[in-house]
Write a structure and sequence with these properties.
The longest helix has 10 residues, at 17-26. The chain has helices at 17-26, 67-74; strands spanning 2-6, 10-15, 28-34, 39-47, 52-57, 60-66, 80-88, 91-99. The chain contains 2 helices and 8 strands; from the N terminus they run E-E-H-E-E-E-E-H-E-E. Strand 5 and strand 6 form a beta hairpin. It is mainly beta. The chain has a single domain, classed as Gyrase A, domain 2, CATH 3.30.1360. The strands form 2 sheets. The protein has a 4-stranded mixed beta sheet with strand order 1-2-8-7. Strands 3-4-6-5 form a 4-stranded mixed beta sheet. Helix 1 crosses helix 2.
Length: 125
Amino acid sequence: MKLRINKGNTLRIRMSQTEVNELVSNGKVEEVLNFGNNALVYSVKRTSDESISVDFKDNMVLISVNSEIVNKWHKSDQVGFDKTILISDDESFYVLIEKDFKCLTDRPNEDETDLFENPLEKHDD
């Protein structure tokens, strides 16, 4: 699972095929970014909550996603899903969760064996 924190309260998660399947079957996918004396844990959890929510507590980012959203995404060609969450009167937080596709160009040192086939890749059939 890849985590990208963008400028302006934006969080983006990309998940491999195995991770998407794990989310559906086990209900949770978790990754740890170890800094040696501390760690950042980030996870996506399937829930019965109404929609999508994000929480940060005790060095853990937890993204909760409604089961119906996860199941629909898993069974389709849908690339991802997102939500803008209002956190104050004048500030919001944007979260995007996507399937991770193989790159269209070679990327040395990048293991793409478990990534989704890129829909933009041209095949000579």
